[in-house]
Amino acid sequence: MEIVLIGTVVVLALAVIGALVVRRRRPRTGTTPPIVSDRDGRRADGPEARTEVGGSATVATPSTSPSATSPSTGLGSKIRRLLGSAPTEDEWHGLEQALVRADVGPRAASDLVARVKERFDSESDPVGLVREEIVGLLGESTGLILPGDRLAIVIVVGVNGAGKSTTIGKLAAKLRGEGKQVMLANSDTFRAAAGEQLGIWADRAGVALVAQERGADPGSVAFDAVTSAAAKGSDVLIIDTAGRLHTKIPLMDELKKVRRVAEKAAAQTGAGIDETLLVLDAQTGQNGIAQARAFTEAADVTGVVLTKMDGSARGGIALAVREELGVPVKLVGMGESIGDLETFDPRSFADGLLGSGV
Ligand code: GDP
Ligand code: GDP
Ligand code: MG
Fold it and tell me: Do residues 103 and 324 make contact, with C-beta atoms less than 8 angstroms apart?
C-alpha cells in the first residue's frame, strides 16, 4: 500500500517537473510579432492596425532561441572562461573555434572575433560584446514582406525532409489568422504522398489546395494555382516544391522552370512572386551553407526558414547564411504542430545561442 502511495507521489512529481521543463523549452507564440511586414518594413497587425518595427518591439520576444543550454555548457560561459581581462591571441583563437563549433561558420566566426577584439578593453563584458555583434550581424528581422493590394506569391524550396510542407501548413494558418485568404499549391508532384500530406495541412489551416495527379508537370501546377488564386481573389498563394538535392542539376533546372512559369502566370494576372523561402533544417550544420548557396543561385531566395530549432540544434547556421550569402532568416520552426512557427528575433536568438550565461 505504502509502496503504491510513494510510487504515485513520485510519478506526480516527475510529471510536474516534466511539464515545467517543456514550458521552458518551448516559449509560446503569444507575444511573437506578426509574420508579415508591408513593403515599408512595417509589421501588418491584421488588415488595419500597423506598427513600426521598433528597436524595443522585438526585444521582449522570448522566442527563436536555440534550445536552452545549461549555464556550465553554454557558449556564453565558455566565452567567459576563455576571455579574461587581457585575452591572448590563443584565447581569441579559442573564441573563434568555439563559434565555429556552434555552426556559426568560419567567415562569420572570424568576423565576429575581429569586431569583438576591436571593442574589447579590460572593463568589457565579453559575452555582452559577442551578443551585440551577433545581433548587429543578423540585422533587424522583418518577417515576410508581402503586399496587401494584390495576390502575393510565396515559393518554398529546400532539400527533402527539411520541413517545407510542415512550414507551409503553419504559415498558411498564421496568415489566415491575420485575416488573409490563403491558397496552397502542390508542385511536389514527385513524391507519392506529398499531395496528401499538403492536403492534410490545408485542411488543418482551413485553406484551399490546388494539386494534380502524381507525376504531373510541377510548372503546370504552379501555372494553374496562380491563375486560380488570382481568379478567386486570394491574398497569398504558397507553392510547395519537391525536395531536391542541391547537387542535382536537372532538379534545380526544374525548380527554375516552376519559378519561370509562376512568374509568367503572375504577370498575366497582375500578381508577383514576393518571397522565395529556403527551408533549412537547423541541425544541418555547415552543409546547410552549400545547400543555401545552390538554392540561392537557382531560385533567387529572399529569406530562410530555420526549422527544428526545438531540437538540440545550435542554430549558429543562421549567422553563417547571413554572412556568406546575405540572406536573412525570416521565420523559425519550433516544433511539429501548427502553431510552432515564429518570426525570427535576432536578440532572443543570440541569447539562446550564448546560453543562460549571458
Ligand atoms: P519536406 O520534405 O521539406 O516537405 O519536410 P516535411 O514538412 O515533410 O517535414 C519533415 C519532417 O520534419 C516531418 O517529420 C516534420 O514533422 C518535421 N518537422 C518540420 N518542421 C519541424 C520543426 O520545426 N521541428 C520539429 N521538431 N520537426 C519538424
Ligand atoms: P515546357 O517547357 O514546354 O513544358 O513549357 P513551359 O515551361 O512554358 O510551361 C510548363 C507548363 O506550365 C506547361 O506544360 C503548362 O501546363 C503550363 N503553362 C505555361 N504557360 C502556360 C500558359 O500560357 N497557359 C497555360 N494554360 N498553361 C501554361
Ligand atoms: Mg514536402
Answer: no
Length of the chain as a residue count? 358
Please state the pTM of the whole predicted model.
0.81
CA nearest ligand 2 atom 11, residue = 220
Cα 322 to Cα 309: distance, rounded to the nearest angstrom = 17
Residues 260-292 have pLDDT tens digits of 999 999 999 999 999 999 999 998 888 888 888
Model confidence over 103-120: pLDDT tens digits?
898 999 999 999 999 999
Q: Which stretches does DSSP call E strand in 181-235?
A: 182-187, 208-210
Exposure string for 300-324, b = 16+ CB within 10 A, e = fewer: ebbbbbbbbbbeebbbbbbbbbbbb
Q: Which residues make beta-bridge pairs with 281? A: 307
* Ligand 3 ion local residues (Cβ < 5 A): 164-165
**Spatial CA neighbour of 285 closest among 261, 256, 317, 246:** 317
Which atom from ligand 1 is nearest to the alpha carbon of 162?
3
The CB of 132 under 6 Å from ligand 2? The reply is no
Q: Is 166 in the pocket of ligand 1 (CB under 6 A)?
A: yes
Q: Assess whether the C-beta atom of 336 lies below 6 angstroms from ligand 1.
A: yes
- Amino acid (1-letter code) at residue 48: E
356: DSSP letter: G
